[in-house]
Amino acid sequence: MKVIFCFCKILVGAFLRSFVYVAITLLRKHLILNKIIMVKKLISILLALAAMCSTMPMRGDSPPERSHEIPVKKSDKTNQIRSLCEIQAYYNGMLSTVCSSVASDLGEIDVTVTNCTTGEFWEDTFNSSLTSLHLLQISSTSGFYEVTYTTSCGNLYEGSFVIY
Questions:
Q1: What's the Cα-to-Cα distance from 78 to each of 30, 81, 154, 155, rounded to whole Å?
Q2: Residue 164: predicted pLDDT
Q3: What is the reported pLDDT for 145?
């Protein structure tokens, strides 16, 4: 009887030790999996933020790669003298957009971007009294592009750029 009791005690002890070992192992795996999942989520969030921030120009930085300023000048119809104007424009190659910024209220402005190489053109209208920033989606096809801005008063602003 004493032998059976000792045998049972050894079996129960071994069972409890193995049960505790399995429980601890599972708990460790669960915690490790949770940590891995949290790290994956954190990495994906950081990558998304990095992608968003890389397309946004920072104050004092130059525009993103493949982006450049489009020189825009006011066209005087009487003697064809061109002067600097209140419209600034940038081509963003990463987004294939022409971004126009208006310094003062010029009223309603018609924007036309023409690819002189292929003949494609894009037109849009925006009200500079409501928004000072305008984006126009264009193609990224290489060529020589002309940008024209016509105000509701009839003033004409022109610019050009090249996509290689």
A1: 79, 8, 13, 12
A2: 85
A3: 95
Size (the chain), residues: 164
Distance CA(26)–CA(28), nearest Å, equals 5
- Looking at residue 124, its amino acid is D
Bridge partner list, 149: 111, 157
Which is it for strands 72-75 and 97-102: parallel, antiparallel or unpaired? unpaired
Nearest-angstrom CA–CA distance, 127 and 107: 6
Structural tokens at position 143:
């060529």
Chain mean position to CA 82: 35
Q: What are the structural domain ranges in the chain?
A: 1-54, 67-163
Nearest-angstrom CA–CA distance, 76 and 162: 24
How many alpha carbons fall within 13 Å on the CB side of residue 71?
5
The domain made up of 67-163 has a fold known as Immunoglobulin-like (2.60.40)
Contact 87, 72 (CB under 8 A): yes
Q: Coil, strand or helix: which one is 78? A: coil
Of 157, 7, 160, 161, nearest to 76 by C-alpha is: 157
What pLDDT score does 109 carry? 93
Q: Which residues contact 46 (CB under 8 A, 6 or more apart)?
A: none
Q: For the chain, which residues score pLDDT lower than 70?
A: 1-67, 76-85
